[in-house]
Amino acid sequence: MRRMKILSALVVALLIALSLALPASASIPQIPNSTHRSVYRFDYITAAAAGLNAGVEQRRAELEQKYGIHIRYDVDHDGAASIGTGALATLDAVLGYFTPSAMRELSNYWLSQTGSRLTISFVYSPFQRYTHQIGGEVLGSFNPSTAVIELYIPSFADNVFISGESPLTIMHELGHAFHFMVADLYGEDRLRRQWEALNDGAVYTGDINASEFDPFTFVSQYSTFSYEEDFAETFAHAFVRHNAGQGFSNYMTLPQGGISPLGRKVNFIERLFPLYFSNSGEMVQNFRRVWYAPIFLDYGRMRLSGDYTQYIGFTPPRFVMRSLLGKLNLELESYQWITQIGGWIITDANGMNYAIFPGGTAFVFRGQAP
Length: 370
Fold this sequence. Notes:
Blueprint: E1 7-12, H1 34-67, E2 70-73, H2 85-98, H3 100-114, E3 119-124, E4 136-143, E5 148-153, H4 167-186, H5 188-197, H6 227-240, H7 261-276, H8 281-288, E6 297-299, E7 302-304, H9 320-326, E8 332-338, E9 343-348, E10 353-356, E11 362-365
Parallel strand pairs: 2-3, 3-5
Antiparallel strand pairs: 1-4, 4-5, 6-7, 8-9, 9-10, 10-11
């Protein structure tokens, strides 16, 4: 048995990137007025007190049965669940890409190794923003000694722009659980050697702050950090980024023709599925969708493209909106979560319209909001 270790998913949160019409000199350090903050907090406490715990418990039990896993979550000081049913709906959809049958087999593997089924635990983040890497947050971790995936969610006091309940974070940590299983059964040295050969000479930086990377080789900046994170990131992005606006097939083939190193990594992971799961057909089909996912999504006056749209089709993460507003020096007039883009459309008191996404990417546009 190889040496076990904990791998933390240090996913770099994107800093606010206002484009188009926002002046370069705009100030962005202040929090909106206290009225909006109080209303936002009051809504959540009231909802929890209204008895959402029963709904959360019912969904938790359903998903445990469906996927053969354990699910845990923190409880607030007043006894309210730290997550809503929306977080469990996101979890259900993401695990569904991997398929219930494959999840049960993966969970059974970890049961055989640790005596416990794969556990997904929503916990308030023990990390303070900026105490690790500049601009970075720890969003999740997988501990192979206990078979526990921890997804770090923000509390009322956190100044965070994205949550560990995000689709990419859930799938990234699941990628670690799958990777550890494969490394044990396939052979870690063999797996590492074959994977690193796909890089065509590119090496891992070991530096979370590395700002440049070849998108034809690595799916994200974080994937350049290490072999293990590269595997989990490629796994996660290929599963999750399959809607219009999320695709990255333009980097999976080379401009001069042929499959790129990134494309070969995606294919490598796909070939592993039938080796370890008795019924992998649906899972492979879900994984292959990334090859055909449209790169752009046109919505109103915006053209969207990239992993900041990962919440398309999902509910918004709790408390993140408050933190994002805290970085914009504006008087809030109205806002609405738009499922079709996985972000908020916001209008300020001056009639300026913003599209803001979990993670910190933001656009400002003139004219009527879509």
